[in-house]
Amino acid sequence: MTVMKNLNEKFTHFRYKEHPGDLFRGTVIVPLPDPYKDQENFWIWFHPCFQTSQDVADLNDLYKYLDDEWFDDDVMETDDYKYYSTMPKDQIRDEIKSLEQVIYQDCFENFYHLILEGKIELLTSRLKKIYVG
Questions:
Q1: CA gap 24, 22 in Å, rounded
Q2: Which one of 3, 58, 64, 118 counts the least CB within 10 Å of its CB?
Q3: CA-to-CA distance for 90 and 26, rounded, in angstroms?
Q4: Is the C-alpha dihedral spanning 109, 112, 117, 123 positive or negative?
Q5: Which backbone phi and psi does 57 adopt, to 5 degrees?
Q6: Are the C-beta atoms of residues 57 and 30 closer than 8 Å to each other?
Q7: Distance from C-alpha of 85 to C-alpha of 89, rounded to nearest angstrom
Q8: pLDDT, tens only, 39-88
Q9: Element (H, E) at 42
Q10: CA–CA separation, 80 and 59 (whole Å)
Q11: Of 11, 7, 69, nearest in space to 37 by CA
Q12: Strand, helix or coil for residue 8
């Protein structure tokens, strides 16, 4: 736990009550990730199916197109590759923003349901329970 200089500052932590059943998440107590400053952790912890999400896979591909990264030969034969590889960078950025909004929405909705269904506990920085569903 980090020692805080300002006693009024509190970090909120959380934990899953039961293991969510995937490789990325567990029942350990962890700091609640900021959705915008720590986007990847927020998505990993709260997306309903981060590992298998087609939206997450598509987003990763869009970043590859944006950065002109190399693709396997079998990918280069697909219609998606032919479509996105010729798309202007600004349009790819717009596609990325749109898809990120969808992923955020999925995460926020799942976080809300996890709280309502009592599947996670929220804790203060001193690890006192502030909400148990």
A1: 6
A2: 3
A3: 38
A4: positive
A5: -65, -45
A6: no
A7: 9
A8: 999 999 999 999 899 999 999 989 988 888 776 777 777 777 777 778 88
A9: helix 39-46
A10: 13
A11: 11
A12: coil
